[in-house]
Structure formats: structure tokens, C-alpha cells
Amino acid sequence: MAGNVNSAPGQAHWSSRAAFVLAAVGSAVGLGNLWRFPSEAGANGGGAFVLIYVLCVALIGAPLLLAETLIGRHGQRSTIGSAAILAKQSGASSGWAALAVIGLIANFLILTFYSVVAGWVLYYVATSLGDVAGAVASGQPFAGAYAGLTTEQVRAQMPDLFADPGKMLIFHAVFAIITTFIVARGVKSGIEVAAVWLMPAFFLLLIGITAYSAVVGDLAAAAAFLFQPDFQRAIQPQVLNSALGQAFFSLSLGGGAMVAYGAYASRETNLSSSAGTIAFADTAVAIVAGLAIFPIVFSVGLSPDAGPTLMFQTLPAAFHSMPGGALVALAFFVLAFFAAVTSSVSLLEIGVGWVMERFKLGRVLTSSLLGLGFFLIGLVSLFSFNIWADQRPLPFLPGFENATWFDAIDGVTGKLLLPLSGLITAIFIGWVADKKLVDPETGLRPGRFLPLWRALIAWVCPLAVALILLFGLFPQLIS
Ligand code: TRP
Question: How far apart are the CA of 30 and the centre of ligand 1, in A?
Fold first, then answer.
């Protein structure tokens, strides 16, 4: 395949700064914003969670995002290769690069269940297409209820899907194939093309659905829920831990996705302003998504704390009683699919970049092997909803005693491995790596924001992440 040899880390580049930012925003904006953020906010008291979340993004996420992209841009290699270069040039132990393996593993594990959830999204795209067709055929395309279905039948879609491993498997496989195909096409003609087409479409759909929701839904209730913090909840360790984990997950941090994408950025790209744009865009999308989802949920009197079922059960039921609901549901799940693909490709690219570099393999072969790998491991999460629903893999880990395989992989990666990997990155960049190499990469001016960023990355990030990790794991320490 032409272009294949030039697509390894160290050779491939984005075609412009805008392409880099769009691809990185594509990585950041995903199911984390649409599915995980609203469900975490709903489960953790709304406003309290949102407030802590925004603080986590500003003080920990954005500085780390800059740190990750600069490791990549400096090294121009895979995540592990780039960390090794910076460690070596700084006269530090090569053990620092070995620690990047944590992120690599975390990402791959995230991809395994991400694809399962994205498969649900595809399933809902398919069923809403059927609903729209039915509504149109019945001659009432803008009627509330989907053609002939009752709200109960709409709510039953999710348990029915979960009970049917075969159905889930098909959609998980389709999503895995799409992801693998895009990554196999390379950085410029695969990942960049997907971001450049899908992200603008995503933004248009999001604006449209939010406007619809503001008109037909209960916007005031949603705004009160998202923006009125209950301070007693905000300082609870679980809320802190969930907000930090969500910030890492949503900004694609801690796993090296941003190292990988930074490696394809040109020398001219200003990394600090890019990191700011990416963090801002991702947070804005999460909040706007909340403003698209909750008004509809509240207007039909449903509860916001449904957790992971919010997007797949509560929301479709809410759409069901709205005018034009079938069409809006279709638009929403198409939007979620676009967001999911531009994220899953980044999760896969981290591993693909490293394997290509380490084993000198071609891109198509590497993508196919890893694609098959994450599909197969994803079956563990998939079966945890049906065949293996009774299994509890982590009875010994505090907070995870009752977790299924799916919860265990999601929780351990998001709440443990990503923050741990971010902690290591902050210490590495803040204390170990040579300032003479690091500082010029940031694009920050020495007299102004550079000292601020240095203080955040050297002190605030490591301390905050370490404390939150500790209290998250051992809540009894402060209660
Ligand atoms: N940020 C993505 C989302 O919000 C998920 C994601 C993509 C991710 N790449 C990542 C999460 C790397 C952690 C690490 O859906």
C-alpha cells in the first residue's frame, strides 16, 4: 500500500495545525462527553461534580495535555519511544520510558470496552433508522411516539440488547472494523480525514439537538441541575475521584494518546495554545451535551441519576414522548457514533504506532492484528452483561468488590491507571526532564505563563492526583 512506509511515528505528520487540533479534539470528544459525563454528573450530584470537574480540567488536565503533546512532538516517536528520547537526552533512567507502558496497556483496555459501548450506539443508529422509517410510513413523521412503539417497549430495547450477546457482538465487530480500517489508512489519509469530516458534522448536530432540547425540554431544570453545586457533596472523596477520572478519560490523558498525536505535529505548531483549545473544546462539548440531554430527561419527569443507562434507556424513552422524537433520536445516535469513531482511532493509534516502531511492521498488518486483539478482549466486557453477569473479578479491591468485568475494566483504567500514568508524566516533566528541552516546546513566554505552567505541572498535578488517588482507593482515611 503506497504511503504505508511513511506512516510510522517519526515520518508521518498532520497537514496543518488545524488538522492536529481537530484530530486531538476528535480524540478528546467522544463517548466520554456524551455517555460518561452526563451519567457521572447525574450519579454524583450534578453541579458539585461539574464544578470539581471544571477545576480538574483547568488545573490538572490542561497542563498535562501540554506535557503529553510536548513529549510526543519533541521525540517524534511512539509514546514509549518519545518518552525514551526525552529521558535519555535529560540524562535520566530509561525506566521512565518503561513506565509509559502503563498508559499503553490502559489505553488498549479502554479500547476493548469502548468498542462494545460504541457498538450499542451503532445498534441504536440502526433501530432509530427503523423507527424513522416507520414514522414516515405511518404518515406522521413528526408525531411524538415512534411508529407503534410504547414507551415501555422503547425502554426494553436496552435490556433486550444486553441479554443478547450475539446482537451485541455483531455491532461491536462492525465498530472494531471501522476503527481498524481508518487507522490502517494512516495518519493523514485515515485519522485526519475522519476528523476533518466527522467533527464539523458532529458540531452541527450537537448545536441542532441542543436547540431542539432547549425549545421542547425543561432547560431551566437542567441548568439548575448542572450549575448549582451542593458544596457538601463536592468535597466527598468519591466525587473528587470520579471527577478526576472523568477529566482524564475525557481529555484522553494519561494513556499517551496526546503523546502519539503530538508526535505528528509540526515544529511550528504552538502546543500551549493548541492544548488550551483542545481542553476548552472538550469541556464545552461535555457541558453542552448535558444541556442537550438533561432538559429532555427532566421534561418528561425522568431521573438524571440512571448512570450508564442514561443515554441508552432514559434518553430514548424521553425522546419517545417528544415531537419528532424518532428523528432527533437518530440524529443523536449518529452524532454519538461520529464522536466515538474519532476517539477510538486515537486509542488504537497509540498501540499501532508503538508496535510498528518496535517490531518494524507495516501499518496495515499492525492495525489488523491489534484490531483483532481488542475485538477479542472486548468480548470479556460484552459477556459481562449476559453470560458472565455473575462474575466478580476484583473481590479484593476496595470499591470494586461488586464490579462486573465491564465495571472493573472501566473503573480500574479510568480511576486508577490513567491518573497513575498522569502522575508519572507530571513528575517526569516537572522534575526529571531537562528544562532546556521542555520549555521551548511549550511555546509559553518565560516571564508569564511558563512559571505558572511549571508550578501546575511540578506541584499541583502530582499532589492533587496523588491525594485523590489515595482517598479514592481508601475513603476510610478521611471519614
Ligand atoms: N476521550 C475519549 C472520550 O471522551 C476517549 C479516549 C480517547 C481516551 N483516547 C483516549 C480515553 C485515551 C483515555 C485515554 O470518549
Answer: 7
